[in-house]
Design a protein that fits this description.
Strand content of chain A: 15-25%
Structural class of chain B: alpha+beta
Number of helices of chain B: 14
Low-confidence stretches of chain A: none
Number of strands of chain A: 7
Distance between the termini of chain B: 77 Å
Oligomer: heterodimer
Order of helices and strands of chain A: EHEHEEEHEHEH
Strand content of chain B: 5-15%
Largest sheet of chain A: 5 strands, parallel
Largest interface: A-B, 23 and 27 residues
Mean pLDDT of chain B: 87
Order of helices and strands of chain B: HHHHHHHHHEHEEHEEHHEEH
Low-confidence stretches of chain B: none
Radius of gyration of chain A: 13 Å
Radius of gyration of chain B: 38 Å
Strand order of the largest sheet of chain A: 2-1-3-6-7
Number of strands of chain B: 7
Helix content of chain A: 40-55%
Helix content of chain B: 55-70%
Number of helices of chain A: 5
Structural class of chain A: alpha/beta
Shape of chain B: elongated
Chain lengths: 133, 422
C-alpha cells in the first residue's frame, strides 16, 4: 500500500486530493491533527505527506502549529525524515514559495488552485522514486 | 562655563564697556528718529516682487514689523548687552525665518539701518572726537548684531528643516504602514479567493476528465463546485464592499429608520436558518425606541450579518434581539445575544480582523468570507455608531451590541426638510 497523508483543514480541498491520489492507486489518509500526521508518517506504508500552510485547528503536542512547522517537525524527526513532504498552499505572493520551502525543509511545492491533477501526480512520482533508487 | 557666542564676538570685535556707555549715551539722541527709520525702511520692502508671499498680514503686519524694527534699533543703544539681549536678537531672527523672509533682506535692512544711524549721528553730534567715537561704537554693535541675527537665521533655518524632516519621516512611516496594510490585504485576498477556486477548478477538471463515474458521486462533486462558486461570489462582493468603504467611496444615505420594524423584517428573513437548526429567534424592545439616523439598506445588511452570525455559531438555545435606548437617550442599542459557542477572551480582539474566522469548523459548515464583521463595523461607524462584542468565554454565548445615534428634534426637522426637497 502506498499511503499519502493529507493534512488539510478545508474538507473540500482534502477530498480533491483524495480523488486524484486514489485514482492513481494511492491511499489517502486525511487528518487535521499534527500528532496523527506524525504517527502516520512513521508507518512504512506512508510514501509522502501533503500539507497545507494555513492550518487553523492543527495541534501538535498540545500546541497550535501551521503546515510549515509540521513539515519542520517531520523533517527533524529521524523516523520521518525520509518521507517527502509537499507543501500545498494558496499563499502564492512573490517570495512565498522560496520562504516556505526554506523554512519548512519540504521537498515539493504545489500552488493552489491546482489546474491539472498531473501536477500533483508527477511531483509525487518524482519525489517517491528518488528515495527508492 | 563655556563662553557664549555674544561674549566671543565682543572679544573679536573689541567691544568694551566704553562702547556700551557710549551707545547708552546716544539713546536719547536716536529715539525721536526711530519711527522715521522704520518708515523709510518699509517704504522699500513691500514693493519687492517677493514681498507678497511674505507680507500676507497687510497693513497691520507692516505696522507690527515697523515696531519690531524700532525695538531692535532701540536695543542697540540700551547699554546692556547680555544673554537676554542675545536672546531677543535670536527671536527677531527666528521670527523672520518663520515668515519665510529671505536672509538677504534682513542683512540689507541692517545695513540700511546702520547707514541711517551713521548719517543721523553725523548730523546730531557736533564734536568731532565724540562723533568719531560714536561711529566706532555704532560700527561694533552693528557687526555684533549682524552676527547674532545671522546665527539666529542659520540656527532657525536648521530648526525648521529638522522639524520638516521629522514631519516627512513620520508621513513616510504612515505611508509605509498604509502600503504594508494594503499588501497584506492583497495577499490575504489572493489566498481566500484561491481556496474556493481550488475546489471549482479541481473538481470540474476531475468531472471533465472522467475521474469519477458514479452518478451520485458526480452530483456530489458538482454540488461542491456550486457551493464553492457561491462562496467565491460572496467573497468578491464582500471584498468590493470593504474596498469601497475603506476608500471612502461608499454612498451612505442617512434617513429616519425605525429599528424595531427593521429588526422584525430581518428576523423574518433569518427565521428559516434558525428554524433549520431548531433555534428560537426572539425579538423585542425595552421601552420606547425612538427612530435613528441610519442608512436603511446598510443597517439591514449589518443586522443580517450579526443575526446570521449568531445563528451560525449557536447549536442549541436561542437568539434574542432587543432594542433599547442607552442611559442618556443619545443612542438606540441593539443587543443580539446568543447561547452559542462564545469567544475566548484572548480571541475577542481578533474578531474585527479581516478574513479572521475564529472557528474553522463552523466556517466549513456555514461558509462566510471572514469579512462580515469588519464590514459591519465600518458601516456602523460610517453612520456614526459603534459596534462591540462581548462573551464570557468559550461555550458561554456571545452578545453583539450595535449603538446607532438617535435622531434629535432638530435633526428630524432637517431630515424632513431635505426629504421634501427631493
Amino acid at each position: 500500500m502506498k499511503r499519502v497523508v493529507i493534512v488539510e483543514d478545508n474538507a473540500s480541498v482534502a477530498k480533491y486530493f483524495q480523488y486524484v491520489l486514489e485514482h492513481e492507486g494511492y491511499t489517502a489518509a486525511i487528518t487535521e491533527s499534527g500528532d496523527e500526521a506524525v504517527r502516520l508518517a512513521r508507518e512504512a506504508d506512508t510514501v509522502a505527506v501533503l500539507v497545507d500552510v494555513s492550518l487553523r485547528a492543527t495541534q501538535y503536542a498540545g500546541r497550535y502549529i501551521d503546515g510549515i512547522e509540521l513539515s519542520r517537525i517531520l523533517k527533524d524527526d529521524q523516523q520521518t525524515a525520509r518521507v517527502p513532504v509537499i507543501i500545498a498552499t494558496a499563499h502564492v505572493m512573490s517570495g512565498d514559495r522560496e520562504r516556505f520551502l526554506q523554512e519548512s525543509g519540504a521537498d515539493g511545492f504545489l500552488r493552489k488552485p491546482i489546474v491539472d491533477p498531473q501536477e500533483v501526480l508527477s511531483l509525487l512520482n518524482r519525489l517517491t522514486s528518488e528515495g527508492s533508487v | 562655563m563655556q563662553e557664549t557666542f555674544l561674549e566671543e564676538m565682543k572679544r573679536y570685535v573689541g567691544f568694551t564697556a566704553d562702547d556700551a556707555a557710549m551707545l547708552a549715551s546716544l539713546a536719547s539722541v536716536v529715539e525721536p528718529h526711530l519711527p522715521q527709520l522704520a518708515d523709510r525702511f518699509y517704504e522699500q520692502i513691500p514693493s519687492h516682487s517677493e514681498a507678497a508671499a511674505v507680507f500676507t498680514g497687510g497693513e497691520a503686519q507692516i505696522a507690527r514689523l515697523k515696531l519690531t524694527l524700532q525695538r531692535w534699533a532701540r536695543g542697540l543703544f540700551s547699554g546692556v548687552y547680555d544673554d537676554a539681549y542675545a536672546l531677543e536678537r535670536f527671536r527677531i531672527g527666528y521670527r523672520h525665518v518663520q515668515i519665510r523672509l529671505a536672509q538677504r533682506y534682513v542683512i540689507a535692512a541692517m545695513h540700511g539701518v546702520a547707514l541711517f544711524l551713521r548719517e543721523l549721528l553725523d548730523r546730531e553730534i557736533g564734536d568731532d572726537d565724540r562723533r568719531r567715537r560714536a561711529h566706532n561704537s555704532l560700527d561694533r554693535i552693528i557687526v555684533l548684531d549682524l552676527g547674532l541675527i545671522c546665527e539666529a537665521y542659520f540656527e532657525g533655518s536648521l530648526r525648521e528643516l529638522r522639524q520638516l524632516n521629522e514631519r516627512l519621516t513620520s508621513a513616510n512611516r504612515s505611508l509605509e504602514e498604509a502600503n504594508r496594510v494594503k499588501a497584506d490585504f492583497l495577499a490575504a485576498t489572493s489566498h481566500e479567493l484561491r481556496t474556493p477556486l481550488t475546489s471549482i477548478i479541481g473538481f470540474s477538471r476531475l468531472l471533465l476528465d472522467a475521474y469519477v463515474s458514479d452518478p451520485a458521486e458526480q452530483r456530489d462533486l458538482l454540488a461542491d463546485v456550486h457551493r464553492s462558486a457561491l462562496h467565491l461570489l460572496s467573497l468578491v462582493d464582500d471584498i468590493l464592499d470593504l474596498s469601497r468603504i475603506e476608500a471612502g467611496r461608499l454612498e451612505i444615505t442617512l434617513e429616519l429608520v425605525d429599528l424595531t420594524a427593521l429588526i422584525a423584517e430581518v428576523a423574518t428573513l433569518t427565521k428559516v436558518q434558525a428554524d433549520a437548526k431548531g433555534l428560537a429567534l426572539r425579538t423585542g424592545a425595552s421601552g420606547d425606541v425612538p427612530p435613528v439616523r441610519a442608512d436603511r439598506s446598510r443597517m439591514r445588511q449589518v443586522l443580517l450579518n450579526v443575526i446570521g452570525n449568531a445563528i451560525k455559531f449557536t447549536d442549541r438555545g436561542e437568539i434574542r434581539v432587543v432594542a433599547a435606548t442607552d442611559s442618556d437617550a443619545a443612542h438606540v442599542l441593539v443587543d443580539v445575544a446568543d447561547t452559542g459557542i462564545g469567544i475566548a477572551p484572548e480571541q475577542q480582539p481578533l474578531l474585527f480582523e479581516k478574513f479572521r474566522q475564529l472557528d474553522a469548523s463552523y466556517t466549513r459548515k456555514h461558509g462566510g468570507s471572514g469579512l462580515g464583521l469588519a464590514i459591519s463595523k465600518a458601516l456602523i461607524e460610517r453612520m456614526g455608531g459603534r459596534i462591540h462584542v462581548r462573551s464570557e468565554g468559550r461555550g458561554m454565548g456571545t452578545t453583539v451590541t450595535i449603538a446607532v445615534p438617535v435622531v434629535t428634534e432638530a435633526r428630524l426637522e432637517r431630515l424632513e426638510a431635505t426629504r421634501s426637497e427631493r
